[in-house]
Design a protein that fits this description.
Blueprint (H helix, E strand, L loop, with lengths): L5 E5 L5 H14 L4 E6 L8 H8 L4 E4 L11 H20 L4 E5 L2 H5 L5 H9 L7 E5 L5 H6 L2 E4 L6 H5 L10
Parallel strand pairs: 1-5, 1-6, 2-3, 2-4, 4-5
Length: 174
């Protein structure tokens, strides 16, 4: 018997998106209709996971202007995030998806660009036949974690960048 799930991957470690997309690719292997809405990040065209999703006809849209710590004016990203959340609700309510990844979605909640209580209430009110929702990002708010059916905290034990200053590598980080 299928039960709709909200799954959260959070923490300061590397791999939250990788885990979520691994779950999505598993679901796709079982003929689930999957999609990715990515928040904050931009220009995914160079990323291996984006290329693989596109090769499998998995819809993927981005709503962001880059990581917020690199920008002086967050207003364009806030506008993008709000548009992305509207799009997420459209996808969820469309009946066209079995699983949707909301990548880096915790950032708009932490920054209070979206109302946590409204997002949580929306997710909790979804009917059983709605798609599974997988959310990633650092510092997931307690309210989101409490509402999740499953939540995992990803933590680095060691990381090659911190240990050896090895920069991001094609096929490993992107």
């Amino acid at each position: 018997m299928r039960k709709r799930l909200t799954i959260v991957y959070t923490g300061n470690g590397k791999g939250k998106t990788t885990v979520a997309l691994g779950l999505m690719f598993r679901a796709k292997g079982h003929d689930f209709r999957c999609g990715v809405l990515q928040f904050i990040k931009k220009n995914p065209e160079k990323w291996g996971e984006y290329k693989m999703a596109k090769s499998l006809n998995i819809p993927w849209e981005n709503y962001g202007c880059g990581f917020t710590w690199k920008m002086k004016n967050p207003e364009p990203t806030i506008k993008e995030v709000k548009t992305g959340w509207c799009r997420a609700r459209e996808w969820i309510e469309s009946g066209q998806f079995d699983l949707i990844v909301l990548d880096e979605f915790t950032y708009p909640l932490v920054e209070k660009w979206l109302e946590l209580d409204e997002v949580v209430a929306y997710l909790q009110a979804l009917p059983p036949d709605a798609p599974h929702i997988v959310i990633t990002g650092r510092n997931a708010p307690d309210g989101l974690l409490d509402a999740a059916d499953s939540a995992a905290r990803i933590q680095n034990i060691q990381h090659h960048f911190e240990k050896q200053k090895i920069r991001a590598q094609k096929g490993i980080e992107f």
